[in-house]
Amino acid sequence: MSAGDRTSDYEFELPAERIAQYPVEPRDQSRLMVVDRASGRISHHHFHDLRELIPAGDALVLNATKVFRARLLGKRDSGAPAEALLLRPVGEDRFEAMVSPGGKLRPGRVVHVAPGLDVEILEITERRTRIVRVKSAGESVAAAIEHHGHIPLPPYIERADTANDAERYQTVYAREPGSVAAPTAGLHFTPELLGALDARGVRRVELVLHVGAGTFKPVDVDDPGQHVMHEEWYSIPAAAAAALNETRAAGGAIWAVGTTSTRSLESAVLPDGTFAPTSGETDIFIRPPYRFRAVDRLITNFHLPRSTLVMLVAAFAGYELTMRAYREAVDSGYRFYSYGDAMAVV
Known about the structure:
This protein has helices at residues 50-53, 141-148, 163-168, 191-200, 238-249, 258-268, 308-317, 319-331, and strands at residues 31-35, 42-46, 59-63, 65-67, 71-75, 81-89, 94-100, 110-114, 117-124, 130-136, 176-179, 203-209, 232-236, 254-257, 278-282, 297-301, 342-345. The protein is α/β, with parallel strands linked by helices.
């Protein structure tokens, strides 16, 4: 087997102080590592430098999903604390959810979130998540979730969510609710930076992939081929498909902002390298060796060890270069994970 074939190849030491607990302000002041695949050169910039790095005529692909207040905190009948993290709707008032404490929340049990808002456990799925019914009296289920739910910050952000997170853990272009995690590479963009890229002649393209909790799930088998990905719903509308095809026809490059945009594009690209409007679920697992057909450049954050996300980056940049870039990021004080810094692989 070659380097990058095993999950253990993606272990790396990360000091706890490198894990960003709060975002940089303003957004585009985050650091940006630029990794050149052709030369192997690594250089250091700030995110706002993208206005000089992306040429006119290229396409910048953004995931316009919006994080909803999916974390419902409450109590069991005993008064002990409990919670449900809603992953995706499976009916008008039913959701697939992760619950805690899992051993106590069996079918028939209820989490009392607020007066008039309960979460009833209906069944246990094959992957040990729950199917739950959200019961709301006095307002719609969607309104009750928005009213009483919490922003589902990732588990490595070791603090409660704040009022600021409701705005900051969203991209500035978020518009379609459905994610339980932000497409974090997009958190660095400001309206001003997007406007500067528009003025430069960079084509802005929006798609949607609703990010599920599986994005944080580590690969716990040493053969990545045995890892089971969670399905995520995505949509590439007609305007996006047309813009991507026009970019390709004119010789421009496609820049995917984040692993979610990358997975959407690679799920949808046709055998001839073109795109058609499409929507559906994808469980694509991109890891070495993989031949990219849709994405020419990648903007992404720094990811968890042993994760499917760092494997995707290694498939794009090459395993050795990716791990060298990660070592340099640690040594150079880059901030990691959702509120951390970014990398552009060109």
